[in-house]
Amino acid sequence: MVLLYYNNLISFGLLAASFASAAPLSVHDSKKQPDNCAPVHLFVARGTSESPGDGSIGSLAQLVLQENPEATQEAIDYPAAPFPFYITDVSIGIKAVTNQFMHYTSLCPNSTLVFIGYSQGAQIMLDALCGSGGPLKGGTGSPTITKSQGKNIAAVVGYGDPGHVAGESWDQGTAKADGIFARPAGACNAWANNIHSYCDAGDPYCAGGSNQTIHLQYTHKYNSAASQWVNGQIVSASA
Ligand SMILES: *[C@@H]1O[C@H](CO)[C@@H](O)[C@H](O)[C@H]1NC(C)=O
Ligand SMILES: *[C@@H]1O[C@H](CO)[C@@H](O)[C@H](O)[C@H]1NC(C)=O
Predict the structure, then answer these.
(1) In which domain, by residue range, is 214 found?
(2) Could you say which residues form the signal peptide (predicted)?
(3) Residues 99, 105, 110: CA angle, nearest 5 degrees
(4) How far apart are CA 159 and CA 164, in angstroms?
(5) CB atoms < 10 A from the CB of 112, how many?
(6) Global confidence as pTM
(7) Is 215 one of the catalytic residues?
(8) What per-residue confidence (pLDDT) applies to 137?
(9) DSSP characters over 128-182
(10) Nearest 5 degrees, angle CA 47-CA 51-CA 56?
(11) What confidence tens digit (pLDDT) does each residue in 131-150 have?
(12) Best probe residue, ligand 2, of 211, 215, 220 (max atoms within 8 Å of C-beta)
């Protein structure tokens, strides 16, 4: 017991020290030199009505950060409000994802990138990369980040994405139906090897179901599998 306690203290100390020495880049400080860029940077988009910050899917981001102690992260800054603001906020969110991505890559063109989004947060990220169902579905219709601009995006994890399309090769989970804001089939083909989109049958938003509880269980059910997949993608991208 005592030994375990001291071991934990020591590893906590080491972890804190490595975070400090990594001197994470502030993306708002354009005077920082590229050698302050983190090798891995995460963008995290919370779900509808969650408080500003990472939201519940921050638990997945934390698992990835634990495996990659020099990695940094930033939350997507968007309103994430529910109906009747949802459609407007998806548009704002797509722009926020795009602008934050463009800003970071202009400073750090060689960092490996990871996108992590839950619910509305998954929709804005995947709409930015793949295009959306069109203006009525809150989107621009076409991608705002091209595959060549996003060549360093190693992994994209969506949980409960309302833009979910059933039967895609990147789908994970048990869903057999489309989400309420489904994008066109194949819209994400360019990113097929980079996306894991988790959606379970019964989810009202990503799978046309009616069970709210399903929409709240993704971190609990899939964080372990998703973080392992992300870490594998990071390793391949850095090889
Ligand atoms: C990014 O990588 C390229 C190719 O290895 C290199 O020439 C360039 O200097 C790097 N840029 C930065 C900002 O590190
Ligand atoms: C909703 O899903 C939860 C979690 O899978 C399950 O325990 C519950 O029985 C479901 N509720 C209904 C009404 O099907």
Answers:
(1) 2-238
(2) 1-22
(3) 160
(4) 10
(5) 22
(6) 0.85
(7) yes
(8) 67
(9) HHH--S-GGGTS-SS-SS-TTTTTTEEEEEEES-TT--TT-TTEESS--S--TTP
(10) 50
(11) 987 666 666 789 999 999 99
(12) 211
